[in-house]
Amino acid sequence: MKKIKRKRLLKLILGKLIKRQEEGIMKLNLIAKNFTLTNDIRNESIKKFERLDKYFHDQQEMDIRFAKEGNDFVVETTAVLDGGRILRSETSDNSYQTAIDKNIDGLVRQVRKNKTKLMKGRQSGASIKFDNFEAYDDKKDDEKINIVRTKEINVKPMSAEEAILQMELLDHNFFVYLDSDDMQVRVVYRRRKGDYGQIIPSLD
């Protein structure tokens, strides 16, 4: 009797998995930092992000990182699209539900805004369901990208702390420099929260 029930249960689970694949559900990787990702939060988050199934193919993966900064929940999503392009959005709110909604809206808006450029060559066609995106009412989207200024900079060896000080003295949002330890190019930048970040280039 127990074996029969177990077989039925396994069959039911397998059936649900097959159904999820047939429905074209993305693979979502949820990661939490500074707070516990309870089953309720996980399930509600997955349900919300499944709204993106309308816009992305089922083989597309997306990393979703949750963090707590003060009273705010921070939601950061990253998806490497077919062709190597990276789609990313970061939002925050004192409600994790609202932070998720803002994030999803941001991702959809970014693709809509750049739909024409992304469709050229169809490098991202295996990731994005372009036909499900409404047209973005902005003529600039169809315009060619014009680089109006090219600036050559003299990078100097220094520490990250020195680079941040120099950035502040120049009143810039980022600063390019050579790390004095390994003589590799680095970029420090000011984050929205007021603290700082560092970009380390890699060929991997």
Q: Under the CATH scheme, which architecture of the largest domain would be assigned?
A: 2-Layer Sandwich
**Per DSSP, what share of the residues sits in E-state strands of 2 or more residues?**
25-35%
- Tally of contiguous helical segments: 5
User: Whole-number radius of gyration?
Assistant: 22 Å
Shape annotation: globular
Helicity range: 25-40%
Strand-pairing-aware structural class: alpha/beta
Q: What is the total tally of β strands?
A: 8
State the CATH superfamily name of the largest domain. Answer: Ribosome hibernation promotion factor-like
Question: How many domains?
Answer: 2
- Summarize the main sheet: 4 strands, mixed
Mean residue pLDDT: 81
What is the CATH topology descriptor of the largest domain?
Double Stranded RNA Binding Domain
Low-confidence stretches: 16-22
The CATH class of the largest domain, by name, is Alpha Beta
- Strands in their spatial order, largest beta sheet: 1-2-3-4
CA distance, first residue to last residue: 54 Å
The run of helices and strands is HEHEEEHHEHEEE
GO molecular function: ribosomal small subunit binding
GO cellular component, one term: cytosolic small ribosomal subunit
Protein name: Ribosomal subunit interface protein
InterPro entries: HPF/YfiA_ribosome-assoc, RHF-like, RHF/RaiA, Ribosom_S30AE_C, Ribosom_S30AE_C_sf
